Amino acid sequence: MEKIAKPGVKAPTRDAEATRNSILDAAEQEFAKVGLWGARTESIAARTGVTKAMIHYYFENKENLYKAVMERLIAKRRADLDSLCVDDLSPTDAVSAVVRNLLASIIQNPNVGSLMLLEALQNEGRYYMETSVGSLYGPLIESLKRGMQSGEFAQGDVVHVTANVVGMCVFYVIARDNLKSLWPEGTDLLSNEMCQAHIDSCLKMTLAAIK
Asked: Is 60 exceeded by the pLDDT of residue 4?
């Protein structure tokens, strides 16, 4: 329950947008850990320091909060892709730019890969399809098509190539706790050095495969 300000005492002003973003940040962490099915509104409230009632005030229910988290992630990803202006680049440079951008995105925010995986496993992609109006894979698909049409890339099934490139990039981050056994004990797979090595490896393998 909101506290009633005493006479003569100015009540603190609540920044609605900041509160909403704080809830989304906390919800993103919770959903990335246990998905929509396992997430609890109480846990999200505890992460962000607001009341459960406040979360319901902004989002009404857990499903709407989950959709809002997905929409925010996808909107940011779209903005990142739009900033690349891949149509102005050669096919090779365009593919390289998209792959680098994808890798930077999931390395900076490992929640992205975890959320997408849990969305696929728990919800069969339902909410992803509802919030992703326009494919996030479009720039990569179109860049690969241009390269195949111009003879710069080998001919192939562009959708399968896209899926395999994205999978190669994302799996390293999602499965880092499993994969760490491949390196000496104590190696941080998300350190700057290891991430740069992963980026370089993905780019080399992608360009070698498509050419």
From this structure: no
User: Going by C-beta distance under 8 Å and a sequence separation of 6 or more, which residues neighbour residue 111?
Assistant: 28, 29, 32, 73
Q: What is the mean pLDDT of residues 53-64?
A: 95
**Domain ranges for the chain:** 67-210
3-class SS of residue 200: helix
- Going by C-alpha positions, the residue among 28, 45, 182, 194 that lies closest to residue 113 is 28
| CATH class given for the domain over 67-210 | mainly alpha
Structure tokens of 10? 């100015």
Give the pTM.
Answer: 0.86
Tokens for 52? 């459960």
Q: Helices (DSSP H) in 39-109: which residue ranges?
A: 41-48, 52-59, 62-82, 91-108
